[in-house]
Amino acid sequence: MTFVATTSFSYMPTSSTESIRVNARGVEFHCLTMGSGPLALLLHGFPDSARSWIPLMQRLADSGWRAVAPYMRGYAPTAVPDDGCFQTAALAADAVALHEALGGDADAVIIGHDWGAPATYGAALLAPDRWRRVVGMAVPPGAAMGAALVGNLAQLKRSWYMFFFQHPLSDLVVAANDLAYIDMLWNDWSPGFDGGEAVAATKDALRDPANLAAALGYYRATLGEGKKDPALADLQARMGAEVPMQPLLYLHGANDGCIGREVAEFAAGMSPANVDVRIVEGAGHFLQLEQSDAVARDVLGWIS
């Protein structure tokens, strides 16, 4: 395990984005894709959408990868699943099913941000032979986040929204005034960064009340009474205690207003030798957009 900071480099993209639909585990996923070669699956979080991956997808495609970024279950235009299940183990199982549906092989890599990060770690645990390398961003692997919610009062304060989302009032508050709550979170979590088109794309993915309820359902399945699939109980338990065995790169924005830098530093100190924790300077929570060059350099170096 190492702990380093990252800096930037310059890049001119040449690849363009296409859209596909993929059926996996009974859900029709709408995916952005570009490039050809080994599969690189990219999983987004909240409040976000697949479009925030485009800068990294362009670099992956230009480096010989087939980059695929699904809108996660419940985020339009992906379907709201009939099973109403939004636990992180379900997201991990979705990723494995997408690997199968997309024709991935043992050279595939998986990359996740925010909710996509635990989904990524879970997919790597569930089907280790499918993923050669793993990258997580903004939510560290292992028990660091859970420990922070118990013993780190500063982080508990930052995470207030997770508890607010347990109350039905949050459905109304988040939806009000053209989803102004989402603007607030982006401003708080990535100080000084203008999310622009990425925020607009996020609102489009969540504007329908059914989609917004699905997104909030991720939190209710984690901390509240949200539905959990008994068939995924073993994987869910493993995800709370284990770190994937593959080489795992973890990137965290130095100015992240959602999960503090100290949580990443704590994760670095408790991680096994296969985990490399790096702080991205000049970035907050949405580091793949704020410092897209630096993030791409680290990711490409890791998976090459």
Cα-based radius of gyration, to the nearest Å: 17 Å
Low-pLDDT runs? none
- C-alpha termini separation: 19 Å
Look at the helices and sheets and give the structural class: alpha/beta
CATH class: Alpha Beta
Extended strand count? 9
User: Going by CATH, what is the homologous superfamily?
Assistant: Alpha/Beta hydrolase fold, catalytic domain
H/E topology pattern: EEEEHEHEHEHHHHHHHEHEHH
Summarize the structure.
It is built from 13 helices and 9 strands. It has 304 residues and is of the alpha/beta class.
Write structural notes for this entry.
It is a single chain. The protein has a single domain, classed as Alpha/Beta hydrolase fold, catalytic domain (Rossmann fold, 3-Layer(aba) Sandwich). It is of the alpha/beta class and 304 residues long. It has a nine-stranded mixed sheet, sandwiched between helices. A hairpin with a 2-residue loop joins strand 2 and strand 3. The protein is globular. Helix 2 crosses helix 3, helix 3 packs across helix 10 and helix 7 crosses helix 9.
